[in-house]
Amino acid sequence: MKLNSTLLAAAALAALGLAAGAARADITGSIMLDGKAPEMKEIDMSGVKECAAQHPDPVSEEMVVVDDKGGLKNVIVALKPDDVGALGAIEAPKEAAVLDQKGCQYVPHVLAVMVGQDLMIKNDDPFLHNVHSLAQTNPSFNFGQPNKDQGKKVDPMKAAEQFKVKCDVHPWMGAYIAVFEHPFFAVSGDDGKFTIKGNPPDGDYTVTAWHEKYGNQEGKVTVKDGKGTVDFKFKAEGATGPIDNPGMPRLARNGGGDGGATVKTVSSEKSMTCCGGCTEETKANTKVAATK
Ligand SMILES: [Cu+2]
């Protein structure tokens, strides 16, 4: 009898789990690169022994990372609601977003966080990195982490913005952080696929997709019963990036870029769209930067 009740309890739990799974609503999709991916340059760490020592194999830049099917990694995808307030009561994700420094690279290379979400900067290397945020709207940070560190909490982000983070010790180290006013965002994985979780209300939404080299795109998704799909395709040909903007107009003024295209070379209205939840101020800056 005891066994039976245990089994029953397990069955009930399983049923609950299934029900919860069924109720969970996700927006999914994939990002593909159309055409041949440019070959990424090898990062030369030879001048810094402690970094080079951590990489028996060559390390490539992470600007364009595709799998063998053309899935494009590190694309920030987000809903762009007309009115964030219409999304209902939304809370920042409880789990902290973590930017790690490992083997003299940022992990992940692209990170998305929500306003108010905890943001931790971790150091997996037993030596100095100086992590330097180029944020202008948000509280910026600029501090050294001389040794391994499980995570130093920085001030939570306050507004939608995208910015670059760099290391002042190792010039090749760069990461991007995008801040949203809502939790409906994701970053595409190794296979170019993404999942926006959080169950946004049913309806039609604009979705933005931003890539460091290929810029911005917008798509549409219809969310029904919390589910929806939207795919993006970026063209490999003709891109002149890296593009620190237009999704990140502030970077151009910061000189935080890697060179290459600047906002001056971007003329299409579409590519000047802010990547998700832009504040009016950001939009205004986009226009100012674009007309300079
Ligand atoms: Cu560093």
General description of the model:
- The protein has helices spanning 2-23, 49-52, 249-254, 280-291; strands spanning 27-34, 76-80, 97-102, 105-107, 110-114, 119-123, 129-133, 142-145, 149-154, 161-167, 174-180, 185-187, 193-196, 203-211, 215-223, 228-229, 232-235.
- It is an alpha+beta fold and 292 residues long.
- It has three domains: 25-88 and 182-239, Immunoglobulins (Immunoglobulin-like, Sandwich); 91-181, Cupredoxins -  blue copper proteins (Immunoglobulin-like, Sandwich), CATH 2.60.40.420; 240-292, no CATH class.
- It has a five-stranded mixed sheet with strand order 5-11-10-7-8, with no helix packed on it. Strands 1, 13, 16 and 17 form a four-stranded mixed sheet that branches.
- Strand 3 (97-102) and strand 4 (105-107) form a beta hairpin.
- It is globular.
- The N and C termini lie far apart (79 Å).
- The protein binds copper (II) ion.
- Copper (II) ion binds at residues 104, 129, 167, 169-170, 173.
